[in-house]
Amino acid sequence: MFDVSLGRQRTQLCNGTSRRDFLRVGGVGLFGLSLSGFLASQARAQSPGAIVKPKARAKSIILVYLGGGLSHHDTFDMKPDAPEEIRGKYKSIPTTVTGLRICELLPRMAKTMDKICLVRSQSHENDHHETATNWVLSGRFGSPFGDYPAMGAVVALETGFAGILPPYVAIPKNPSFTWELGKSAFLGGRYESFKAGDPNQKDYKVRDLARLEQLTSRAVERRQNLLAAVDTLSERIHGNDQIATYDQFQKKAAQIVTSKEAQSAFDMAAEPDKLRDEYGRTEFGQSCLLARRLVERGVRFVTVNFGGWDHHAKIWMNLEKKLPAFDQGFSAFINDMQGRGLLKDTLVVCMGEFGRTPKINKDVGRDHWGRAGSMIFAGAGVTPGGVVGASDKTGSYVTDRPCRPADVAYTVYSALGINPRDQVHTPEGRPLEILSEGANIGELFS
Amino acid sequence: MLVLLPFVLLALGTPAQETPSFRQDIVPLLTRYGCNAGSCHGKLAGQNGFRLSLRGYAPELDYDWLTRELNGRRIDYARPEGSLLLLKATAQVGHEGGKRFDKDSRAAQTLVAWIVHRTPGPAPRESDAVGLDISPAGEVLEVGHTRQLVATARWPDGRTRDVTWLCQFFSNDESTVSVTPEGLVKALRNGEGAVRVHFQGLVGVALFTMPYPAVVEPSRFAKKQNLIDDPVFAKLAALHIPPSPLCDDATFLRRAFLDAIGTLPTAAEAGAFLADNHPDKRARLVDSLLARPEWVDFWAMNFCDFLQNRRERDHDVRGPKNVRAFHAWVRGQLAINRPWNQIARDLILATGDSSSHPEIGYFIYTIGEKQNVAESEVGESVAQALLGTRIGCAKCHNHPLEKYTQDDYYRFVAFFAKVQLKRTDPEKGVTTLSVASREETDTRKEIERAAKALADARALPAADASARKKVLEAQKRLDELNERVVEIAAKPPTVTQPRTRKQMPATALDRRPQTFQAGHDPRENLANWITDPGNQAFSGAMVNRLWKHFMGVGLVEQVDDLRSSNPPTNPALWDALSGEFVAHGYDLKSVMRLIMTSRAYQLASDTVSANEQDRKFYSHYYARRLGAEVLADALASATGVADSFPGYPVGARAVQMPDPGVNSYFLTIFGRSDRVTACACEKSADVTLPQLLYLENGDELRSKLRSPDGRLASLLKKTPDNDAMTDAIFLATLARHPTAGEARAVNDAIASDDPRDEVFRDLFWALLNSKEFAFNH
Q1: Chain A residue with the nearest C-alpha to that of B747
Q2: What local confidence, expressed as pLDDT, does residue B355 receive?
Q3: Kind and range of the H or E element at B196?
Q4: Residue A353 distance to chain B (closest CA, Å)
Q5: Rounded to a whole number, what is the distance in Å from the CA of A15 to chain B's nearest CA?
Q6: Angle at which helices B249-261 and B293-306 pack, to 10 degrees?
Q7: Could you give the strand order of the β-sheet that contains B419-422, starting from the edge strand earlier in sequence?
Q8: C-alpha–C-alpha distance, residues B687 and B692, integer Å
C-alpha cells in the first residue's frame, strides 16, 4: 500500500511530461521511428529545453514549519465582515503595509510586514496531518507515510556536503504527529535531516556532536590508526551501499567532532544576550536564531519546526499562548536577517500543512482545512510588503492565485538553482522527476 | 447522420467496423493515455472541472461525467471529431495536459467512432476480460537488444483480442530493462527484470534475463548442502554470476547468532565453536540456537513488528499493560514452536476480554475506535501481515497494480463486520471483543427477557386458565425469538461499499462465494481460507519474511507486497520453500533450519569479481547493518554494561522491549519500527550521520567503555598479558581472534609510551566503530 518503489513509474502527468507524450505518437507512428531516433527525441524532450536550469537566487532555505495548521482567520487572513462564528474573536490592526491588516495578537509582525510577502492562497485538498504534511514538504502527493523525499532531503542530494556541516538540518527536530515526517524517503539515510535539538535549553549542546573527552591529538591519531587497522570490511565487500554510506559518515563524523567551525555553529552562547532576548527565550525564538547561524555557515536547508497549532478546541486560549512566541521570534528573525544582509540570498518560507475551518466548532476550535491557508515568504528577491493571492469572504476557498504544494516546492527548488524537472533515482534505479507538476510562484518576485 | 457516418469513417480511413465498447475500448484508452491518472482528471477534485474515476475504476461515473456534464458539451454528435474531448486530448485547443495523442491516431479514431455510434454507455451485462496473455512471457535477451511485447486479452466466452495498443507497460526494474508506452522492451544491463502489462484490472508479466558475458565454471556450483542450493545455484549459473566461497567458521558463528537469536556469541561460545573439530558443527550450532530462550525474545519482537503491537495514537485503551500482555502471548506461542497456521488462526479468531485473551489486542489496535470496521485499518493490516498482500489502495479505488477492486476490499473487510469491541480504559477494566451483529445482540437481550417472562408465567398457579394461556404465549414468543436469532446469526456479515452504497457480503480475495453457518464466528471462514495449505500467499508471505531476514533481500521485495505483477526473483526456490513450510506443518523453526544449513546462507559476504553488482540472486551473503535493537544489545553485551530502559529492570535487553514507545534515543536513531502499520518498511536499515556520531563520540558509549563494572575494566584488572588482552577484546566484539596484522597494530600502539589502559580502551572503541561490528556479514 505504501510502497515507494512501484506504482508511480511513468505516471502520465499533467504538466512537464506533455512534451514527452507529444512524441508518443500512437501505435503506428512509433514504429516508423528508429529506436535510437525515438530515444534521442525522447531525450531531447526530457532535457531542459523547455525548462532552463533556473538561476540560483538563494544559497539557503529556511522553512519555518507551523505543524498542525495555523488558523489563517485568526492571524494573517482575517475576515472582519464575516459572521461572528467565522470571523472569531480578534480585531485586526494596521501594518507597515498600507491597507494590510493582521491580527491584533501579532503587533511585532505588523511592523514587519513591509519586509515579507504574505501569501493568502495556500491550497490543496487534504485534511489529514501526515498526508498533507508530506505533500507540502515534498511537493508531491502520496501516502501519509511519506512516499517522496522532503524538499530538504532533495536539496541535500543536489548540493551534497559542501562544507563541514550537514546540508539539511532540522531544529529542534523534524515535524511529527505520531511518526517522523520530512524524511528522505527512498533517497535513504544519507539525506535525512540532522537534528539540532532545542537551542533554548540551558547549556545547549547538540547530542554526540560536541567533543566530550579532551582527546589529545596523539590520542585521536592512535584511535584512527587502530580503527584503520581493524575496519577492513569495505576492502573485502564491494558494491554495498550501506557500507559505502557508513564509511562516508564515519569520516564526516570524525571531521565534525574535531572541527571548530562545526562546534561554533551551534554555540548559542556566542550570541549577545540582548539579541537572544529579542528573539525571545523560547524554543521557537532560539531555533530561529540558530537557523540564522547555520545558514551563515553554509547549511542549505534548515527546518525550524514549530508545531502545536492543531487547535480543535479552546482556540483563543491556545492562540494567546502560542502567537506571542511566534510574533516575537519570527519578527526578530526577519529583522535580524535583513540587518545582516542575509535575506539577499536566503529564501524564508513559513507555512503549515493547511489552514483551519472557517466555522468555529462546538468546542470553540477550528478543524483541518486544506482548501485555504496563509504562508509567508521572504528574501531571495521576494517582493517586500507584497500580498499574493486571496481567499473568499469566509476564508473557505482561494479566489486568487492558488498556490499548491508543488508550486511552493517549485519555487524553493528554483530559488536554489535546482531544476524541479531533474530526475532522482530510487534504489531500484527508477528515474523520477523531483516534481511532476507545479510552477514558480512568479507573483512573489514581481 | 446516416449520410454523415460513412463519410466520417471513410475520411478517417478507420478499420473500425464495430461499435467501440465503453468498458472495453474507451475506458482502457483513457487509462492508457493517462487521462484518468491520479495527477490528472483521475484525482478526487478532477482537473479544471473535468473529473474521471482513477484509472477507470467506475465506468458508470465516467460515462456520466463524459457525456452529461456541462450539458454534454464534451461530445459533439454533429461533428464528432470536433468534440471538446478530442480537441483537448489532441491539443487542438489549449490543454494543460498537452497532446495525449494525434488527431489521426487510432485512439482518436476510436473515440470518433464511439461518438458516431451515439456514445453507447457501459452495458450492465457486458463482461470484462478475464485473462491477459503476454508474449513472450519470458526470454533471454542480450544487453542492448529489444523485443516488442504483444498482449492478448481473453473473455469468458472464449473470445480473444490483441489489446497491446490499449495496455500500459511498466518495468519493475528500470535500471535493468526499459519498456516504452507501446510495449517495446530494451535490455539495459545484465541481470533479470520483469515488465508488467496492465489492461483494465488485469496484469500480465514478462521476464527478461540478460546473462553476464563470462560463463562461470560449472564446478563452482557443484557443492550443495540442501534443497535450497539447487534453485539458487541454477539461477546464478543461468545468469553467469559466480558465487563467493563458503564463509569461515568465525564468520558463520557470529552470523548465525545474530540472525537466529539477535545476540553476539560470548567470548566463551566463540572460543568453544572455533576449537570444535566436529564436521557437523555448523548444523549442530543451528539446532542449539533455535532451542535457546533468546530465540523466543528475538522472534517475539520480529513478529510484534508486523502484528503492530503498540499503543493507540488517540484514546488508547491498550496501555503498557495490554501491549505487554500481547507480547507475552506471542512469546508463549513461539516458546512452544506453535505452527504458524495455528498462531494465525488464533489471532484471526481472537475473542474475549483483554485480560484472559490478550491476543484481541491485535483488533483493539487495528480496528481502534471505529464502530464501522470498513473505516478501520483492519482489512489492510490482516492482508499485509498474514498474506503479504497490500490491499489498502483498494479502499479508495481499484488497486493500480493488482486485480483487487474496491469491492474486493470491502468484501474482505466484511469478515470483521460482526466484531464488536467494548473499549474500556485499561485502568478501569478490560476491553472485550465479541462477535455478533448488533441485531443479534439485541435479539439475544429480547430472548433473555422472554425467558424470564416464561419463567414468571410458569410460577403462577397451574390451575389458573389465564396462567396457562400466559405460559403458552410466553413459550410461543420465546420460540419465535429463538428461531429468529438463528436466522439473524446465519446472515452473512456485510459492510457498505462507500462509493456504490451497496452491501458487500464477506468474501475472500479469491472471490469464491462463502457460506456461513449459524452460531459460527464468520472469521472462521476467513481463517480457513487464509491458512488453507493451497493458499500460497499465506505460506509464501511467511517464508519470504524469513528468507529476507536471513538472506538480506526478499525473494519478493518489498517483503509484504506479493502480487502477480511482482514475481519472485527465483520462482523455483519460492515453490520449494513454501512447499517445505506447508509440508512441515508450518513449522517456523524447520524453515529457519533449512535456510541456515544451506550453502547459499553460508557463503562469504566478501565479493568476488563478477558478483559485486549482484543484489538479488544470492551470490554472496549481503552484509547489512544490525537492526536497532540487536545493535543496542550487542554494544551492551560486548562492553558488559547493560542498558536501562525506563519502566524496565536494568538488564532487560532492547529486543525484549514489548512496546516501541519505550523512550530510547538509540533505538530511535537506529530505526526501530514504530509499528503504526503492518509494513515491514517501518523498520529502517538506513545508515545516518547521527548513528556515526553516537558511535564515535557519544557519551553513552564512552561511559560504557569507562564503566568500572564493565568488561574492559575487569579484563584490564585480570589480564596482564597484552596478547591475551587483545584476543579477549576481539572475541568479545567480533567473535574471532585478531589477524596477525591487527595484532601487530595493537602491539605498535602499546610499544609507544601511551598508557596501557588507554590503548586498550581505544582498541575497544575502534572495534565497536568498525563495520565488522556494526554489520552482520
Answers
A1: A226
A2: 94
A3: strand B191-199
A4: 18
A5: 6
A6: 60
A7: B352-353, B432-435, B419-422
A8: 8
Decide: residue B67, CB within 10 A, 0-12 exposed, 13-18 middle, 19+ buried. middle
- Closest by alpha carbon to B289, among B597, B34, B497, B606? B597
Q: Which of residues 136-165 of A touch B (CB under 8 A)?
A: 141, 145
Asked whether the whole model's pTM tops 0.90, one would answer no
Q: What are the residues whose beta carbons fall under 8 Å from the beta carbon of B349, sequence distance 6 or more?
A: B521, B523, B524, B527
Q: What was the pLDDT predicted at A213?
A: 63
Using the predicted structure, report yes or no on whether residue B1 has a pLDDT greater than 50: no
Please give the backbone phi and psi of residue A30, each rounded to the nearest 5 degrees, phi first: -60, -45
Residue A320 contacts B, CB cutoff 8 Å: no
| B753 at A interface, C-beta within 8 A | no
Q: Tell me the residues of chain B between 246 and 265 that have a Cβ less than 8 Å away from chain A.
A: none
Number of other residues whose CB lies within 10 A of the CB of residue B463: 7
B177-179 and B184-187 strand pairing: antiparallel
What was the ipTM of the complex prediction? 0.88
Q: How confident is the model at residue A429 (pLDDT cuts 50, 70, 90)?
A: low
- Residue B43, SS3 per DSSP: coil
Interchain contact A214–B (C-beta under 8 A): no
CA distance B445 to chain A (A): 36
Write down the residue that cell numbers 523525499 correspond to.
A149
Judged by a CB distance cut-off of 8 A, whether residue B271 touches chain A is no
Q: Tell whether A21 is within 8 A of chain B (Cβ).
A: yes
Summarised one tens digit per residue, pLDDT across range A63-115 is 999 999 999 999 999 999 999 999 999 999 999 999 999 999 999 999 999 99
Residue B611, number of CB atoms within 10 A of its CB: 23
Q: Which candidate, B192, B259, B294, places its Cα nearest to that of B548?
A: B259
What is the mean predicted confidence (pLDDT) over B76-96? 91
- Which of these, B699, B700, B621, lies nearest to B654 by C-alpha position? B700
d(CA B718, CA B317): 52
3-state secondary structure of B129: coil
- Model confidence over B737-777: pLDDT tens digits? 999 999 999 999 998 888 999 999 999 999 999 999 999 99
**Pairwise CB contact (< 8 Å): B762 & A226:** yes
- A222 → chain B, closest CA residue: B749
Q: SS3 of A180, please?
A: strand
Q: Which parts of B327-404 are beta strand (E)?
A: 352-353
- Residue B724: C-alpha distances to residues B531, B727, B747 (Å): 54, 5, 12
SS3 label, residue B223: coil
Confidence label for A53 from pLDDT (cuts 50, 70 and 90):
low
- Chain A partners of B606 at a C-beta cutoff of 8 Å? 236-237
pLDDT band (50, 70, 90) for residue A203: very high
DSSP bridge pairs for A122:
A373, A403
Give the type of residue at A118. Answer: L
In chain A, the residue whose alpha carbon lies closest to the alpha carbon of B166 is A27
Q: What is the residue whose three cell numbers read 549542546?
A: A205
Option in A179, A232, A240 nearest B674 (CB): A179
User: B414 is written with which cell numbers?
Assistant: 466484511
DSSP state of A59: S
Q: What is the mean pLDDT of residues B608-631?
A: 96
B525 touches chain A (CB under 8 A): no
The three-point CA angle B384-B504-B313 to 5° equals 45
Residue in chain B lying closest to A178 (CA): B313
